[in-house]
Design brief:
Layout lengths: L1 E3 L11 H6 L1 H5 L2 H16 L7 E5 L5 H8 L3 E6 L2 H7 L5 E4 L13 E7 L8 H9 L2 E12 L7 H6 L7 H7 L6 E8 L4 H10 L8 H8 L7 H17 L8 E7 L3
Parallel strand pairs: 1-4, 2-3, 2-5, 3-4, 5-6
Antiparallel strand pairs: 6-8, 7-8
InterPro entries: SAM-dependent_MTases_sf
Protein name: Bifunctional 3-demethylubiquinone-9 3-methyltransferase/ 2-octaprenyl-6-hydroxy phenol methylase
Pfam families: Methyltransf_23 (PF13489)
Length: 261
Amino acid sequence: MITRWSEGLADDNMAEDILVDLGEVIARHPWWRARAALTMDLLRRLGVRPPARVLDAGCGWGTTLEALEARGYRAAGADISRRALEKLDRPGRELIEADLTRPLPPGLPPYDAALLLDVIEHIEDDREALARAGSLVKPGGVLIASVPAQPGLFTEFDAIQGHRRRYLPETLRGAFQGTGLDLERTFWWGAWMVPVLRWQRKAKRAAPGESPAETYRRYLKLPPWPGPLALRLAYALEHRRALAGKLRTGTSLFAVARRPA
């Protein structure tokens, strides 16, 4: 069932046709699976355990939402794209159409945690989006955000996705100022991918006449077997080091914040 909190224009954040039509590509891509696994472990370490209520804001293709459900969380998926939500809709699943740039309905029950995974880089006023999502968390509850990192790695792939920016630790910390949330830590993820993205920045340019969807699919093309296995192993090998804050670079940054009790 899909509940509407607010209505926005999905194409302002990412072309909705790409978001909706490439779900099968995302479903088999190791990056989204690895990010979901990292998030599940992070929630556990923060003491947010099933059957806690968790909001996956900007749930997109539903990879993290499915991981939450599989572990027994009372999960809700929110997204600006009604079409994306309709593809995820099934009996018993809580889905919400919402635009984080618009006011929230009054009287919403609070969540134990909110996730904004690769969401705020799509929004002009990232601070407002964080504050709005933070207001949905109960006192003492947790907000986890992830963002693409390092402005120098910005490519046409970012532009196609509707990214307005890539972050550094100081700019991510700055986005939390004035949100009413206490930022506890930030950490890097995807250190092994940095040289890969640098190579893509130089080598992968759109061919003449190539559509944005074709470019997006090209960037996500997986190498032949056993390449996908090697990618999964690379993410698994740095999983614990990322959570421990031992990485000194990465293609993504995570932030953990808490609403004051």
